[in-house]
Design goal:
Distance between the termini: 56 Å
Shape: globular
Number of strands: 3
Strand order of the largest sheet: 1-2-3
Largest sheet: 3 strands, antiparallel
Radius of gyration: 16 Å
Strand content: 5-15%
Number of helices: 4
């Protein structure tokens, strides 16, 4: 049974990460979050993961609600938040490195050099590039 709980926890965690990425991209369509697996830190015990209860797999709706809560309540996502602040918050919550990317034509560019920009600035710059205004 212990292995089943670990699989369930991992599966729910991966589903939650995907939904956090989707919700974020819905709000900021010219930005994308990438969770990197290299150097991943171990996750805390299940009791500190609010989206996993006793190892039970949650419904898609429960996981999506948890993703929204992470962005809205746990992180307080806002236009004025800096990329570096969001990356740090998500790394703390998920125990995995996060890198923001901005849409640039037909590909996604890392925002490593502009981590001190706000989410609004990054998204608007991506939109301007996509529309040919820059």
């Amino acid at each position: 049974m212990g292995a089943d709980i670990m699989k369930s926890s991992y599966g729910v965690r991966q589903q939650l990460i995907g939904m956090v990425q989707e919700e974020f991209n819905r709000v900021y369509p010219f930005l994308k979050l990438e969770f990197r697996s290299g150097g991943q830190e171990p996750l805390p015990a299940n009791e500190s993961l609010p989206w996993i209860r006793g190892g039970d797999v949650q419904t898609d709706e429960q996981v999506r609600d948890a993703a929204r809560n992470i962005l809205d309540k746990d992180i307080h996502l806002s236009d004025n938040m800096k990329v570096s602040e969001l990356e740090t918050s998500l790394r703390h919550l998920f125990g995995a490195p996060v890198q923001m990317h901005r849409k640039s034509g037909n590909f996604w560019m890392e925002t490593r050099m502009t981590r001190d920009w706000t989410l609004k600035q990054q998204n608007e710059h991506g939109r301007d590039i996509a529309s040919g205004i820059y």
